Amino acid sequence: MEILLRPDAAVGSRTAAGVVARLIREKPACVLGLATGRTPMSLYHELIRMHREEGLDFSQVTTFNLDEYVGLAPDHPASYHSFMWEYLFKHVNIKPLQVNIPNGLAKNIPEHCREYEDKIRACGGIDIQLLGIGGDGHIGFNEPCSSLSSRTRIKTLTRRTIQDNSTFFDSAEQVPLHVLTMGIGTIMDSRSCVLLAFGTRKAEIVAKMVEGPISAMVPASALQWHEKTTVLIDEEASGKLTRKDYYQWVYQNKPAWQTAEIES
Ligand code: PGA
User: Fold this and answer.
1) What dihedral angle (degrees, nearest 10) is formed by the CA atoms of 220, 226, 228, 231?
2) Would you list the DSSP string of 100-145?
3) pLDDT digits over 125-176, tens only?
4) Are 18 and 259 in contact (CB under 8 A)?
5) Is there an atom of ligand 1 within 6 Å of 160 CB?
6) Cα atoms found within 13 Å of the Cα of residue 133, Cβ hemisphere only
7) Above 90 in pLDDT, residue 261?
8) Bridge partners (DSSP) listed for residue 142
9) Would you say the CB of residue 137 lies under 6 angstroms from ligand 1?
10) Element at 165 (helix H, strand E)
């Protein structure tokens, strides 16, 4: 894992947007894996700015979102379809047919999940998978105990995640119990991952993910096994890391060509 420390969420989000924009410029027909939640909102905001002011072109980009609530229609205000259109897609020139989000109303869920996996493969696989991390260590909606080789499937949310996500609904009772999510195996197949975590509420789980053992109890820890994962965290989220000085040292001493990949 590459650990990138940034002073705050705004700088961290700009760094992540820069990494995504660089991919889009170098490979216009790239495949992006996208995440929802509070964490990536500023990153999407920055991508919209780059589209408007710098001509960042999404016309050939294909996207696959990590997850969706079972039982919510795409136009439900709390669905991840709505989230993505509201916070990114409607502001850029992406082609709707190149947007993929699991369908929470799928009649045959196992078949829909298999088709989602097939489509990711048919598109050549995901170039960059953006990720947040849940307070319980989930990535996508792979809650603790998820198989580390799982594929897209239905999952049951933990009480904690229901509580955490209730701010997007009128009450916790309205949060669906079930979700469709890419599996940890699906995420591990991505060519690279960029995980963002900001704020003190993420400090403990970030330390477990980065410095703890690989365990299904902390699904994000599976990324220790991933070939190319960047963990982008702010000062607050880095508060419980024991090797923070070392991560800073590594960054300060990177060869210039490596730093340019991140900073340009
Ligand atoms: P958050 O959620 O960005 O709203 O903190 C992260 C997640 O659950 O993956």
Assistant:
1) 20
2) E---TT-SSHHHHHHHHHHHHHHTT--SEEEE---TTS-BTTB-TT
3) 999 999 999 999 999 999 999 999 999 999 999 999 999 999 999 999 999 9
4) no
5) no
6) 31
7) no
8) 139
9) no
10) helix 159-165
